[in-house]
Each structure stands twice: as structure tokens, then as C-alpha cells.
Design a protein that fits this description.
CATH topology: Neuraminidase
Helix content: under 10%
Radius of gyration: 24 Å
Distance between the termini: 31 Å
Bound molecules: MU-OXO-diiron, calcium ion
Shape: globular
CATH architecture: 6 Propeller
Structural class: mainly beta
CATH class: Mainly Beta
CATH superfamily: TolB, C-terminal domain
Number of domains: 1
Length: about 725
């Protein structure tokens, strides 16, 4: 969710009280030797453009995906900014809704009435569609990474639409639901499974895609689905609860935001703003004896007395409600008689095999616990470790990297047991956090119990590697990682292997705390008078590992794009010289096509929404170092940063604008690059229980107003997946 005048997720507010440098000291030390460290990548990238093949991105019958043919120029006309309550795509393209909140996923589930009376969301699409991946299916239903006419979408359902001051998810209750405590069990039981993940089959019939209502592959994973803890923290004392005395299992996945697709054909789903769903008693610090768990809870945003987002803990005596109260209540020494440790079981990348309902769902704890967004894999090199890149989305949080202990073996692209392959690459290895230097270099600092700095940390007494990964934020504080402007998604460039991270915005950034990698702090006006401050529009930073080595401990970086309004000051704000066809704010979703090589940028914005609804742009980026050093001259301070080559009309264009009060997120394609799946999250999310009974007060009626489902022009808005195709049948963007 964005930081704006709408609902502000408390989990995204700065809980980072570490003294990590504001970078003024680093700026003093700037060496200005960046040019020495740059140069090779650009020409190398040009040389390999056009005709390489990639290893399979799915565990199919084939061991190679379709060849990558990077587009050298965008072939569509830019879409203008729009405030219309509809999806706008370029001339020559068609966008169709295929899977919306409440759509039935079994042969017997009824059509969604969309009037607040539907229940049984275990058998329906969840809410707030988010990150998404596509997995091909052959005609016989076997996995086929090349299949472009039949496949599975794995999709996150992040949250629900509700007013920030209300507890109920208004649109799924007839009269908006109950906002006082206790919450009725029937309402809680309806809201919990709106969260989690869908696996849903899609098929192309003629020119059109549709989802398959009665597919045997269809599946919902919810906050109550049993999962297995894997990696360093599995079985740790930190994980024990009334549900799992041995700390090896847990219940469900929650607030799933970005995704990643593993090279062996599974999905990683990131748990983002999970902390806010739990409540903690007003005197819990003392109840815990003020032990170190209190420091951990505070660092992850749960001070004692914190109220839960929805009040689910009040649904009744059943254990499925009790688990949302993480106060220490029991007499046990190890927490096996209450849910004091429950928060430690959320905040991971969770691995799901989309093709198998019987495979275990595994939380990959070794990759760290934080507000996960997407997971981007390094380019695969036979016989070398692989890396997974990750962002922690809250103001002032960090960028992380995982490096596997195991070396990549091409045979693992098509394994007999996909989750066992995940065990191989995602349980043993090293976790690093990023420090961005003022000279355009950076360092990956290992978060290991053997690291002397972590052993001697004064902010928290780390016991073992389980403690380090469960408290990754505290470990990153201790080693002096760089506080970033809300790291959202990351994605790997399929040719250069460079890794791009969206830094969506940061209302806490001030001129005093600007640094080379987070160099902007300014004021912007929204509408007639609303002033917003900080890094209002966000930017996209990118990283090139030294020698392209996924296991490197140093890197070079620059900023691919700075979000800005076209008319903004080019000296301090519109540093990428964006035009009216390119201007955007709060980049969030980020994804590279493996067919066209295009970089897709999606926004979750509350700053530029007086001029346009949230949008999606296509870019053809160059590489780290293709631009120049730029000095931002503030009053009393100057900051040098590194700005990538300015985009042209051929290399960056707005491709889509969504309906009112939505976020654009989630991007997946068929392997032939001819169908692009995109999620429209929370159209018209600004709603209260008082206004839900009056359709005239809804900000959006999409997709009912586009002819999808019940309700027509008076419909309650629904999050939904759309599929975009080019009318001439070509590759998207060409
Ligand atoms: Fe769910 Fe930070 O976006
Ligand atoms: Ca503005
Ligand atoms: Ca996001």
C-alpha cells in the first residue's frame, strides 16, 4: 500500500531506530572514482542482445524456455494519464477481465453475487490480487514451461479494502460489517480466507483467455493452511507455540505481496505487512520479563498495547482466533502453551509447488524475516551458487541477498520433486544485507552468527543463526546497512543480470538524511493544496555485481529512473527528464519479460493521483553506469548521485492506466510473450461501513462497469486479474 491520504499501513511506518548512518559521513568520504569502476557492462550488454536463450523458468518437459528476443524500441503509442474508472491500454491492444474477487474455484461454488452476502472464500478468489506467476501446462495436464495456451496462475491476495480506522472489510459484508469488538465469528471466518494465495488454471479458447472454474489444479492457500518451517529457524525455540510444540510447523501465510518464480518451477510468495494483524497486551513487556523478545517485537512494529488490524482475535474461544493475540499468557518456559512466538512464524518467502496440491508448503526461514516483497533470481551459471534478491518494504528498511551453498545444476530445472529442490538451494547458504557507498559502489555484508560485529551487537543478543534470520532487521542494524526509501519489488534483467529495485517513496526522508542512493527530499503539491514531503515519487535503483558473480560481496549501482511529474524541477526532482508520456510516481511492481526483455513498472501511488490513476509503463533500460554523476544542490548541503541515461520516447512509455483508487501490481506472461496478465488491486478501496450501502459514494465500480460479473454500473468494486493481448497477435510491446 502507498503512503498517502488513504489508509496508511502501520507496518510501513519507520520502526528502524538504529543509528545507521544518514550518509553525511559517507558523503564526506566520497572519492569520485566511479568512472574507474564502470564502463564494461554497457558494451557487453549490447554485444549479447539479440538471440541468447535462458534456462527454463519452469519445471517443464522442455529444458529451455522460448528464446529471448529483446525489443530495441517500444512499438506502441503511449497511453495518456487518466482519471477514468476503467483500464486504458494502447490502441491495438485488448484488456479483458478474467478472475476477480469472489469468483468460484470449484464446480459447485455459486457465481459471486457481489452484494456482501457471499461467504466460503476458501473456494473463491481472495481479495487484493497482487504478485503473480504463470506456469505452463501441456494438453495432457503435465508441466510444460513452454506452454502458452494453458497454464496456472499463482497469485497473492494481499489484504482487503477497509477504512484505516475501521476493522471490517466493508465490501464483503452486506452492511459493511462490525467495527466494534468483539467481531462476529462469521465475519472473521469470511475475512481470513480473503487473504493468502490462489492457484487457478487459465486457458486460451480461440483468441480469448478465461479461467477454468472446475480445474483440478485450482486451490486456495489461506492464513489457516498448514505449512512447514524450513531452513535455519525450523525447530528453533523461537518458533514454538501451542500449535507447534516442536517449532517445525506453522499455520498459513499472510499479507502476500510480491512473488518470485524459482528456476525449478515453484513460486516464492513474500509475506509483507503481517505484523499488524496481531494484537499484544498492554502489559506484555513485563509479562515477558522484558526479555529480548520485547526488543524483537518492537523492531517489527508490535509494541505492547498494539491493536490488531481487524480484531480477529475476538472471534471466539477457538484456537484459530486465539492465535491472533501474541501476548504471553501461558506458564510454560518455552511458549508451547500460548502464541507469544506466533509473530516469528510470519515474514518469510514461502515456497509453493503450483503443480502439486500434496507437496509441502515451506517457509524458507534462512532467507530472513522482514516485510518481503518479490524475490529475483540471479542469472544461472552451471556449477556456481545462485542468488535471490529481496527488499524489505518499510520506511528506512534494507535490501537483502541470499547466496545458495549449493551450486546450480541444470538438471534441477526439471526435477522430480520441486520442493526438495527448494530445500537444496534455499535452506543452506548465506544471507547478506546491502550497504550503498557514496562513490557508486556497494557492499554485501553477511548476516552470520560468526560475524564478529553481530556476535558483539549491543542492540540484541543473538543466540544462533536462527536468531539472526528471524531478527534479520536487528542484525542488519548492527552491521550498518543502508536505510532505503521503502524497497518494494526487485527484478533481474534477463540479459545483463543486473538487479533492479523499486524504492517506492519515503515521507520520512529529509534533506539532512539524503544520501547518494536515496538522494531526494522535496515538497510536492497534490490537488489544490495538499503538500507531501520527502522522496514523494520514488525511484528505481539497480545493482551490478562485480564480474557478474551472484556470490560477489561488492557491487556497483546507479539509479535507473527517478519518478517525477514531467513539469517538476529537473535539478532536484525530475532527474530522469521524464516527459508527459513517461511521468509516474511511486514505482512498486517491477518485472522483466523473458520474451521481449521489457521492464514493466507498476505504480502504487497516492501523490500523483490528482493527475492520473495508478499506471504501468514499459521500459528498455540500459545498464549500470550508462548515465552520469549528478549533484543535487540543496540549501546548505549537496548530494552526488548517479543517474542512469535518460529514457527516450522509444525506451520508456506509459502502457496502461487503471481504474479509480487502485494499485497496479502483479505481472506474468505466457512464454511466447503474447499474453500479459496484470492485477488491478483494490479499485475504490476508500470505503467506510457508512458508505458501503450507497453505491453513489463508491469511488469505483470496476470491473462491474466494464461488464464483468454482477452489479453493472452500481457494482461494488473488485480486485481482478486482466489479460492483455495485441490485436494482431504479436508480442506485447512490439
Ligand atoms: Fe504490498 Fe509494499 O507492497
Ligand atoms: Ca503533484
Ligand atoms: Ca507492493
Amino acid at each position: 500500500m502507498s503512503q498517502d491520504t488513504r489508509y496508511v499501513d502501520p507496518d510501513e511506518i519507520d520502526h528502524n531506530n538504529s543509528a545507521n548512518e544518514s550518509f553525511q559521513s559517507v558523503l564526506q568520504a566520497r572519492l569520485g572514482r566511479r568512472s574507474i569502476l564502470r564502463g564494461a557492462i554497457g558494451s557487453a550488454a549490447t554485444a549479447v542482445f539479440g538471440g541468447i536463450t535462458l534456462s527454463a523458468c519452469g519445471g517443464g518437459d522442455d529444458d529451455e524456455q522460448a528464446p529471448l528476443k529483446p525489443l530495441e524500441k517500444l512499438g506502441f503509442s503511449a497511453v495518456a494519464k487518466s482519471l477514468a474508472d476503467q483500464v486504458v491500454v494502447p490502441a491495438g491492444y485488448t484488456a479483458s477481465v478474467i478472475y476477480a474477487l469472489g469468483d468460484p474455484l470449484t464446480a459447485t461454488a455459486s457465481a459471486y453475487k457481489n452484494d456482501g452476502s457471499d461467504a466460503d472464500f476458501d473456494n473463491r478468489a481472495g481479495d487484493h490480487h497482487d504478485g503473480m506467476e504463470y506456469y505452463g501446462l501441456a494438453a495432457d495436464g503435465k508441466p510444460d514451461a513452454k506452454a502458452s495456451t494453458r497454464g496456472l496462475l499463482v497469485m497473492n491476495h494481499e489484504a482487503t479494502s477497509h477504512s484505516g480506522s475501521e476493522r471490517a472489510s466493508a465490501f464483503v459484508h452486506i452492511n459493511g460489517g462490525t467495527n466494534t469488538l468483539p467481531r462476529p465469528a462469521t465475519e472473521v471466518d469470511r475475512e481470513v480466507p480473503l487473504h493468502g494465495v490462489s492457484v487457478v488454471e487459465v486457458r486460451k479458447n480461440g483468441a480469448a483467455f478465461a479461467y477454468v472454474k472446475d480445474s483440478a489444479f485450482n486451490r486456495r492457500i489461506t492464513p489457516l493452511t498448514p505449512v512447514t518451517l524450513s531452513g535455519f529457524a525450523a525447530g528453533s525455540a523461537l518458533m514454538k507455540s501451542k500449535f507447534s510444540a516442536d517449532g517445525k510447523t506453522a499455520r498459513g501465510t499472510l499479507n502476500n505481496c510480491g512473488t518470485g518464480s524459482t528456476p525449478w518451477g515453484t513460486t516464492l510468495t513474500g509475506e509483507e505487512n503481517w505484523a499488524g494483524y496481531f494484537t499484544r497486551g498492554a502489559a506484555d513487556d513485563v509479562a515477558r520479563g522484558n526479555d529480548k523478545s520485547v526488543a524483537s517485537l518492537k523492531r517489527y512494529g508490535r509494541n505492547q498495547g498494539a491493536a490488531s488490524r481487524h480484531g480477529w482475535e475476538t472471534g471466539g474461544a477457538d484456537d484459530k482466533y486465539a492465535r491472533w493475540d501474541i501476548s504471553k499468557k501461558g506458564a510454560s518456559a518455552d511458549g508451547s502453551d500460548d502464541y507469544r512466538n506466533e509473530l516469528n512464524t510470519f515474514g518469510y518467502l514461502v515456497e509453493i509447488d503450483p503443480y502439486s496440491k500434496t507437496s509441502l508448503i515451506k517457509k524458507r526461514t534462512s532467507l530472513g524475516r522482514f516485510a518481503h516483497e518479490s524475490a529475483a533470481f540471479s542469472k544461472l551459471v552451471e556449477g556456481k551458487p545462485l542468488a535471490v534478491y529481496m527488499g524489505d518494504d518499510s520506511r528506512g528498511e534494507y535490501i537483502y541477498k541470499w547466496v545458495s551453498a549449493a551450486n546450480w545444476a541444470a538438471a534441477d530445472a526439471n526435477p522430480a520433486d520441486r520442493i526438495a529442490t527448494g530445500d537444496k538451494y534455499l535452506d543452506a547458504g548465506k544471507l547478506y544485507v546491502a550497504k550503498f557507498n557514496a562513490d557508486g559502489t556497494g557492499t554485501w555484508i553477511e548476516l552470520a552468527i560468526g560475524n564478529a560485529v553481530i556476535k558483539a551487537a549491543t542492540n540484541y543478543a543473538f543466540a544462533d543463526q536462527a536468531d539472526v534470520v528471524v531478527n534479520a532487521r536487528l542484525a542488519a542494524d548492527a552491521v550498518g546497512a543502508t536505510k532505503m526509501d521503502r524497497p518494494e519489488w526487485c527484478a533481474s534483467h534477463p540479459v545483463t543480470g543486473e538487479v533492479y529495485f523499486t524504492l517506492t517513496n519515503n515521507s520520512n526522508r529529509t534533506v539532512a538524511t539524503t544520501d547518494a542512493a536515496n538522494p531526494r527530499a522535496y515538497d510536492d503539491t497534490k490537488g489544490a493544496s495538499t503538500k507531501q514531503s520527502g522522496n514523494v515519487n520514488g525511484h528505481i535503483i539497480r545493482v551490478a555485481e562485480v564480474a557478474g558473480d551472484a556470490a560477489a560481496t561488492s557491487f556497483k549501482w546507479d539509479v535507473y529512473l527517478f519518478g517525477a511529474e514531467a513539469g517538476a524541477d529537473k535539478g532536484l526532482v525530475n532527474l530522469s527528464s521524464l516527459t508527459e508520456d513517461q511521468d509516474m510516481s511511486s514505482p512498486d511492481g517491477l518485472w522483466f519479460s523473458r520474451a521481449s526483455g521489457l521492464c514493466w513498472i507498476q505504480t502504487d501511488d497516492g501523490a500523483f493521483t490528482d493527475k492520473s490513476n495508478c499506471m504501468m509503463l514499459a521500459g528498455i533500460p540500459g545498464s549500470v553506469g550508462d548515465g552520469a554523476k549528478k549533484t543535487l544542490a540543496y540549501t546548505g548541503k549537496s548530494v552526488d548521485t548517479y543517474v542512469g541515461k535518460a529514457p527516450t520516447a522509444d525506451t520508456l512509455k506509459r502502457f496502461l492506466v487503471g481504474p479509480v483508487d487502485c494499485e497496479i501490481t502483479g505481472c506474468a506472461e505466457t512464454p511466447d510473450g503474447k499474453a500479459l496478465f496484470v492485477n488491478i488491486q483494490h479499485p475504490g478501496e476508500t470505503i467506510t461501513s457508512a458508505t458501503v450501502s450507497d453505491p453513489a459514494k463508491y469511488l469505483s465500480h470496476w470491473p462491474g462497469n466494464a461488464g464483468y460479473g454482477a452489479g453493472g454500473s452500481n457494482a461494488r468494486p473488485r480486485s481482478a486479474t486482466i489479460v492483455i493481448t495485441k490485436n494482431d497477435g504479436g508480442v506485447i510491446g512490439s
